[in-house]
Specification:
By secondary structure, this protein is an alpha+beta fold. Helices cover 34% and strands 19% of the residues. The protein has 21 helices and 28 strands. It has a 6-stranded mixed beta sheet, sandwiched between helices. A 6-stranded mixed beta sheet has the order 12-11-10-8-13-14, sandwiched between helices. A 4-stranded antiparallel beta sheet has the order 21-28-27-24. Strand 2 (54-58) and strand 3 form a beta hairpin.
Length: 650
């Protein structure tokens, strides 16, 4: 690590101009949350493997900024050469750079890995001391990364219309109507899930996310797909051609944005067939192509488009606005909703099968009292040499149960399988070589999900196979109360996730407890498990987008005690019309529908802290679990689930 930092600082010193600091973000060229192995530059340079964070390297310091999900993990993974900067507690990176770096300092960035919003924010912060943002021609981390993983050639697949629910033709038509409304002649689409959603394609270029490394440019009369052509089969090429999508090489997007800026980007068929002079060809939106070329705006989303592509456009002719695909992708169509519900039922069955298996293993191997009985363990490991369960071997078994289900395509994120103190690391990632063995006397938290052709899942349950302490039960119950309160919310149209976040926290706040992560995120339809633009969170940007009917969102409050345990409960919800008795202000009201199915462990509940209404809710939910999952389980599994969901006496 020291040698790598030294090599990087040498490149910074020899750069023209010399760099006083270098920013290494987590993101790839598409501002992805999860990135391919070869794009994990921040992890390579720092050793910190969390999904969110930013590195700043100066000639004397190496700093890492990350959020509250990763404070504990970062302290464990960073060497003493690094300083952890806690987002929300320490100065933000732009403030730190502006205040700490010298006047006229040059800060280097790879403009492909930084969004327009971020770059412009930093430029504004730098102005007071005449500091400057320098776009490097190459990524300096790549130059010192000697064994950087190679590019993977993974095939592109068509996402069937029965699951997509909306044709490419209709999606392009709707997008072009948006362009016309904004008087834009084209849009550059850089987010991988938006490209995949728009063209109804999927891939395997990023672990856990069924996306393709690709860009898209859509004008009022053409559509382009920038992708490594080696990933395309004859069938895919035919599909794209039929849908009016022209394939261009992935690396050509830079030069083609230059052509787009000067109104010179045209499809190959036009170059071959059109005469030299102007024509009166009319697009489906009523614009002649000559008229279209008099329109000056190119639409980009400043939060996701990289600064490199923006820099090739005339800034006076750019529309900086949230992507018009964000909401249509987030608001699921009927086929997507149906698929998500079915996927979650099969996924719930896999989770129950896992709990049945795990309960038996914990009793047989460790002498645990088990899922149902609240008693001390025998403290006798029965098979010391021959059998043991680790966080990784247990999560592998869970993956196996999911893999047996129809339409399974893989996990939706790395399973968080965490026992005891590890469960206090919010986004813990167990390593096969160093992970912990399961412990009958400790809490076990597993946060997991899968990708199915018809939907993406995400569920968290927290269990104990011995005798939980009174404190653990009180904390679990506070989390459960918050989980129930949010899931039962009824609210007027126009309400955002920032307003709802408090509902999940109030039961914890009453005990002086809290958690350092948001409460809910959108979930894709066989796409990214974390999907915007909406969310439920205390963070200010949760105010930006109100919740709307047919959106998905998670409900996942938690509580974490460093060095002791962690608790989280998570279901996926669908936003639906509430059907209230009254309709004040003619706004319409919304509520939530749970589509995740797996029991909550009654042994961890302190029933005296639950209201009769909350107990009734648990009983009703558990009754629905039995009904929904019964046909997917064997007789012994059904018997276990029946016991796990027996009504709680009020």
């Amino acid at each position: 690590m020291a040698d790598t930092l030294a090599a990087l600082r040498s490149l910074m010193a020899s750069h023209s101009p010399p760099l006083d600091a270098l920013v290494v973000p987590s993101e790839d060229y598409h501002q992805s949350e999860y990135v391919s192995e070869r794009d994990k530059r921040r992890a390579f340079i720092s050793g910190f493997t969390g999904s969110a964070g930013l590195v700043l390297i100066t000639m004397n310091e190496a700093l890492l900024w990350t959020d509250g999900r990763y404070f504990l993990q970062a302290t464990q993974q960073l060497s003493d050469q690094w300083k952890l900067m806690r987002i929300g507690e320490d100065p933000a990176v732009d403030v730190w750079m502006a205040d700490t770096l010298p006047k006229d300092a040059a800060v280097g960035i790879d403009p492909w890995c930084v969004s327009v919003d971020t770059a412009q924010k930093w430029q504004h912060a730098f102005a007071k001391k005449q500091q400057k943002l320098v776009q490097t021609n190459t990524n300096l981390v790549d130059e010192v990364w000697k064994n950087r993983p190679p590019v993977q050639i993974n095939p592109v697949n068509v996402h069937p219309l029965e699951f997509a629910g909306c044709s490419v033709t209709d999606k392009l038509k709707n997008l072009r109507e948006k362009l016309k409304e904004e008087e834009a002649r084209a849009i550059i689409i850089t987010l991988l899930d938006e490209v995949a959603w728009l063209y109804n394609v999927r891939g395997n270029d990023v672990s856990y996310c069924p996306v393709v490394h690709a860009f898209a440019i859509v004008t009022t009369f053409s559509a382009f797909f920038y992708v490594d052509t080696k990933k395309l089969s004859p069938e895919i090429n035919s599909y794209l051609e039929v849908n009016g999508i022209e394939v261009r090489d992935y690396g050509a997007v830079s030069s083609e944005v230059v052509l787009l800026a000067s109104n010179e980007l045209t499809p190959s068929s036009m170059n071959e067939t059109l005469p030299d002079g102007p024509t009166d060809m009319v697009t489906e939106n009523g614009l002649s192509e000559v008229e279209e070329k008099t329109q000056n705006l190119v639409w980009i989303d400043p939060g996701s488009c990289c600064f490199a592509l923006y820099s090739k456009l005339n800034p006076d002719k750019v529309l900086l606005k949230q992507s018009p695909l964000a909401l249509p992708k987030a608001i699921k169509n009927p086929a997507e909703l149906d698929g998500l519900k079915k996927a979650h039922i099969r996924d719930g069955a896999a989770v129950v099968q896992y709990l049945v298996w795990l309960d038996k293993q914990m009793q047989e191997i460790y002498g645990a009292s088990g899922y149902f009985i609240e008693a001390e363990t025998t403290n006798m490991k029965k098979h010391v040499e021959t059998r043991k369960l680790t966080e990784v071997s247990a999560s592998d078994k869970l993956e196996g149960f999911r893999a047996s289900k129809e339409h399974f395509r893989g996990l939706s994120f790395p399973t968080i399988s965490s026992v005891g103190p590890n469960a206090a690391i919010i986004h813990y990632g167990p390593d096969p070589e160093t992970c912990s063995e399961l412990d009958a006397d400790s809490i076990y938290l597993f946060d997991s999900g899968a990708q199915y052709l018809d939907g993406t899942t995400d569920i968290t349950r927290t269990v104990h196979f011995g005798k939980p302490s009174a404190h653990e039960k009180a904390c679990y119950t506070a989390v459960l109360k918050g989980h129930i309160a949010l899931g039962n919310a009824c609210f007027p149209n126009g309400t955002n996730g920032h307003a709802l976040d408090i509902l999940a926290r109030i039961p914890l706040w009453k005990e002086g407890l809290d958690y350092r992560h948001g409460t809910g995120h959108g979930v894709g339809s066989y796409l990214n498990v974390h999907e915007g633009p909406h969310l439920i969170s205390f963070r200010p940007h949760a105010r930006n987008v109100p919740l709307q009917a047919s959106m998905t969102v998670t409900d996942e409050p938690g509580y974490y005690e460093d060095g002791n345990f962690g608790i989280r409960l998570e279901n996926v919800l669908i936003v639906k019309e509430a059907g209230t008795k009254f309709n004040f202000g003619d706004r319409g009201y919304l509520s939530f529908e749970h589509i995740t199915w797996a029991p909550y462990q009654k042994k961890l509940m302190e029933l005296s802290l639950l209201t009769p209404e909350e107990i009734e809710w648990v009983n009703t939910y558990h009754s629905q679990c039995r009904e929904v999952l019964a046909s997917y389980l064997e007789d012994s599994e059904t018997a276990w689930l029946k016991k796990a969901t027996e009504p709680i006496s009020v």
